[in-house]
């Protein structure tokens, strides 16, 4: 009897081990091939953008992928933990810094820059971000308050956090649009969500119940990854083709191209967030600029060095539907404090490293244009 029980126990352990291994590798496959995150793209050091800087690029993208450097942060959702890598540095408050000395002008003003990963500087050195380059061009103290994945709603919270901290701000720049569409046109999110809304909500619910936590732990160890992988593999088989020739699973991932009402709401929400930030700045006596940032599907950028998979092409299509709506609202309301940079990379130069991120030459183009535009604003009383 004891031998039978021992054999049963060994068999159960073997089955559990096999399930855990299959689940582990299923999760890895889903993360690599199916799940989109704020840090998509992986190692891009092979791109022509980094032909003269391959060593940096290899180290940079490796450091970006080394585990999670995020932590929960009230109001904005998440922020960086302090790190000192070879290719980027984050201070104690979670902000990316440029440790390079700058010869600032006497009595230099303080300009603050808010945005997502393109403002944060995904793919470039500390001194090659938009704020850092703006600082070196202008001699003005420039502070990078961008964060990977942030939407315009999170930028408002970030802006308020800076004001509440008592920091002196002479001008604020919001550089966004890409992440609002990236998230709000995704069928897995509601309009106004951020990239981690679903995961944070799930974690909060699970944390309330011990029994659910135990079941969730079992699920994560043995079944979750396998189930997700099976779902991703079987989804195209269960969805019929549609007239466009794309699978329903791909076309249904991003929906603003098929739902005009949703596209309009996404555009209006972005503008509304900018209006709120502008009103706050006005009340505080701060110059304010909002910039509709460039994306690869708008204008005529050089893209022959990039290959976009079908899901990325579907994502790029969303901007063709939503960006014109944003531009129409800007024109109708006559907002001279909102700038359209969507055509700024239409030149014979390799700039994009994916659908929205750019190499240092792109950041330099933006920094120079911002310098020309922001100093045209009338002085605040």
Terminus-to-terminus distance: 89 Å
Structural class computed from helices and strand pairing: alpha/beta
Helices and strands, in N-to-C order?
Answer: HHEEEEEHHEHEHHHHHHEHEH
Indicate the proportion of strand residues: 5-15%
**Largest sheet composition:** 5 strands, parallel
Describe the fold and architecture.
48% of the residues lie in helices and 10% in strands. It is built from 13 helices and 9 strands. Strands 6-5-7-8-9 form a 5-stranded parallel beta sheet, with helices on both faces. A two-stranded antiparallel sheet has the order 1-2. Residues 34-40 and 235-248 have low confidence and may be disordered.
Give short descriptive properties of this protein.
single chain; 381 residues; alpha/beta; five-stranded parallel beta sheet; two-stranded antiparallel ribbon; 9 strands; 10% strand; globular
Annotate the secondary structure layout.
Layout: H1 2-33, H2 54-65, E1 70-73, E2 77-80, E3 83-84, E4 89-90, E5 110-115, H3 117-120, H4 130-138, E6 141-144, H5 152-164, E7 171-176, H6 178-184, H7 197-206, H8 210-222, H9 224-238, H10 248-251, H11 260-284, E8 287-292, H12 310-333, E9 338-340, H13 360-374
Parallel strand pairs: 5-6, 5-7, 7-8, 8-9
Antiparallel strand pairs: 1-2, 3-4
Helix pairs in contact: 1-9, 4-13, 5-11, 11-12
Brief sketch in words of this structure:
With 381 residues, the protein is an alpha/beta fold. It has 13 helices and 9 strands. It has helices at residues 2-33, 54-65, 117-120, 130-138, 152-164, 178-184, 197-206, 210-222, 224-238, 248-251, 260-284, 310-333, 360-374, and strands spanning 70-73, 77-80, 83-84, 89-90, 110-115, 141-144, 171-176, 287-292, 338-340.
């Amino acid at each position: 009897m004891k031998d039978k029980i021992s054999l049963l126990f060994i068999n159960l352990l073997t089955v559990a081990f096999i399930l855990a291994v299959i689940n582990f590798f299923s999760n890895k496959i889903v993360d690599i091939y199916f799940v989109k995150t704020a840090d998509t793209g992986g190692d891009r050091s092979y791109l022509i953008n980094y032909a003269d800087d391959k060593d940096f690029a290899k180290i940079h993208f490796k450091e970006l992928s080394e585990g999670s450097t995020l932590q929960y942060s009230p109001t904005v959702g998440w922020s960086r933990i302090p790190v000192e890598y070879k290719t980027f540095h984050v201070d104690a408050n979670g902000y990316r810094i440029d440790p390079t000395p700058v010869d600032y002008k006497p009595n230099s003003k303080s300009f603050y820059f808010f945005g997502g990963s393109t403002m944060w500087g995904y793919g470039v050195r500390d001194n090659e971000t938009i704020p850092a380059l703006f600082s070196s061009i202008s001699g003005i103290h420039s502070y990078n308050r961008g964060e990977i994945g942030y939407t315009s709603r999170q930028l408002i919270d970030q802006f308020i956090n800076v004001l509440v901290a008592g920091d002196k701000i002479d001008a604020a720049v919001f550089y966004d649009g890409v992440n609002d569409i990236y998230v709000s046109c995704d069928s897995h999110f509601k309009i106004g969500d951020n990239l981690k809304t679903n995961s944070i909500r799930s974690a909060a619910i699970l944390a309330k119940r011990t029994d659910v936590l135990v079941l969730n732990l079992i699920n994560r160890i043995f079944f979750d990854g396998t189930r997700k992988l099976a779902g991703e593999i079987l989804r195209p088989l269960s969805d019929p083709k549609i007239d466009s020739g794309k699978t329903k699973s791909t076309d249904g991932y991003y929906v603003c191209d098929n739902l005009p009402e949703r596209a309009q709401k996404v555009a209006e929400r972005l503008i509304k967030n900018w209006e709120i930030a502008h009103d706050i700045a006005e009340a505080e006596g701060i110059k304010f600029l909002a910039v509709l940032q460039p994306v690869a599907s708008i204008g005529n950028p050089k893209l022959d060095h990039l290959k976009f998979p079908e899901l990325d092409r579907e994502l790029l299509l969303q901007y063709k539907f939503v960006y014109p709506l944003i531009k129409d609202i800007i024109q109708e309301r006559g907002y001279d404090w909102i700038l359209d940079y969507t055509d700024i990379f239409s030149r014979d130069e390799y700039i994009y490293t994916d659908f929205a991120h750019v190499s240092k030459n792109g950041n330099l183009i933006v920094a120079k244009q911002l310098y020309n535009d922001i100093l045209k604003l009338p002085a605040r009383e």
